[in-house]
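Dear V.,

Thank you for sending over the compound details. I've combined the ligand you provided, pyridoxal-5'-phosphate, with the protein sequence from our construct and run the structure prediction for the complex. I'm sharing the raw inputs here so there's no ambiguity about protonation or stereochemistry in the SMILES, which I know was a concern on your side last time.
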Amino acid sequence: MKTKGIFITATDTGVGKTVAACVLGVLLKDQGLRVGYMKPVQCGGNDAELLKKVLDLSDSVATINPCFAPEPLSPHLAFARRNAEVNIPFIKQKYEELRNQYDVVIVEGAGGLLVPLKENYFVADLIRDLDLDVVIVSRLGLGTINHSLLTIQQARGQGLRVKGILLTSASPADGGASEKNSGIPETTNPQAIEQFGQVPILGALPYIDKLNPTAILKECRGNVNLTKILAPSQRVSSQRLKEWDKKFIWHPFTQMKDWLEDEPLVIDRASGSYLIDTQGRRYLDGVSSLWVNIHGHGHPRINQAINNQLNKLEHSTLLGLSNTPSIELAKKLVDIAPRGLAKVFYSDSGSTAVEIAIKIAYQYWQNIGQAKKTKIAHLANSYHGDTLGSVSVGGMGLFHNVYRKLTFPTIQVDFANFERVLKQRHAMIAALVIEPLVQGAAGMILWPKGVLKRMSEVCKKYGVILIADEVATGFGRTGKMFACDHEGVAPDILCLAKGLTGGYLPLAATLTTTKIFDGFIFDYKDQKTFFHGHTYTGNPLSCAAALANLEVFDNEQTLKRLAPKIKHLSKRLQTFDDYPHVGEIRQLGFMVGIELVKNRKTKKPFAWEERVGIKVCQEARNHGVILRPLGNVIVLMPPLSMSIEELDKLLDATYVSIKKVTGNSLVRPTFNINRRN
Ligand SMILES: *Cc1c(COP(=O)(O)O)cnc(C)c1O
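Below is the predicted structure of the protein with pyridoxal-5'-phosphate bound, written out as structure tokens.
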């Protein structure tokens, strides 16, 4: 059988975890199983020696208890006072050793789930990292229901698999009314825990004062439901998930023929800058999970905000009603947006944010009687999303050509001719839609300086609505809150999505000026209402996440702390610049495109069939980094919270991957991995 790892935690310290671990160990051995034991972190006491003796283990105490501090304190304190830290990788290594030896490994925690082992790392995190099932030990008596339910709720909230509750007795005396079987069904504490906690009671241990196998077997045999504890957790195996993925999922922007031939990478959890797959392997999230993550994965404040909102209101519609978080967020967005933007229209993706902007701009002119202004202008190489409206204003042949006959005709401009085109054709142009400063999907193409400012002046001059699509550039990605802020530009319409919720939930916002809003204020019978809305518009959970995202910007001084990291990134990127296959490196803030070319001198590109970008990103996985290219442009777009050390790791992995794939003999100095700013 596959080794079973069971983590024993408790509702509190001193509840009888060690006794429960002893009993469980002895009973499982009695079933003929090879049982190992581990107490990863211990502060004071001698549980490891005790269990070694009772379970007759041959492992050294140092294996059974890899991290020990003599003072009976919370581990993070007990270790800090000795100038040390709980060594998690060492614990993992020792656990693996035991796992290879035994049928069952019992891992005993220190105190309860929220006991800090080190800074920002709790017992619950260790359980998740070791991928163990959880048994909660709870002491019978007054207060048991509350303590047990709190622990169950916390465990579930942390994504842990709870096997059930094991009850212990505090004294040899018979319990009080709460524990005794009253003879009336469903009137005891254990039943209440089972009912309200939706977990099984795994057994109730009598009071035991002698911890030896004979006594334990005599007192406890039959008291614990071992079958339930050993039952496989209801979890789909990694291999099965990969099969089902191929069988059932059609992946976006993916040639499924290739996908079906490759081994999919399935992400199961994440923490900070790291994504973790179903086999527990960790990868740096080098593109912020497709440009959305801002403050790292599993940020406690955003998690908490969603949780709080979840327990209040998960969804109610904005069609004919309002809700608290969507109101608070709208106010906050207007506060931080470029001046003049005063109204917020919600939707759920970048594509819809742009689609809505286009429809608003178009209808605005219709509503106020300028019926000839019907054309939308956009830039060459633009990308504004994948719905047909946003595809219409897209300028990327590879993505967009096939749909040409389904889309509406537009006016395409470039950085050189936009002024002339607007001058000549403004009478028919309703709006100009742009991705300010960085054309992301086109390969992180940077605008020439000053053009954005000029564009906004020209639009004003000729009465053309300027739509800034900051879906990618918004929320600090370029080093300022919005790309428009770099040139002091205030667009008439602003589109936000991707980073709006910190990368947690789908939400988009289209902000407009009061002037545009007023172009829709008519009598109902005039039929000039903006007839548009998505079912989940203004979803409270998403809005709560977005509010927390903005709070974290304030609390953690995200933009201020980003500035030196941007500098560091630039400095390190310069070292890429003389590599023969690097054609150009483009960077604004934390948006980076490294364009790979066949020949640096002639700028001859790699043929797209060579799939150089894809291959580099595949190779990066072998170095623990997740990237996603745009053609032959390697994109780096780390979460704003990524540390300098992690950035270095990201850059090192990117560099060796480029080198490996484009295969060059040029000898280069190796990087100092520990480089700091
Ligand atoms: C990603 C993106 C979009 C589309 O957003 P979705 O949420 O994928 O629909 C639109 N505009 C820009 C600039 C983008 O980068």
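A first observation: The chain has three domains: 4-230, 344-531, 560-675.

Warm regards,
I. M.
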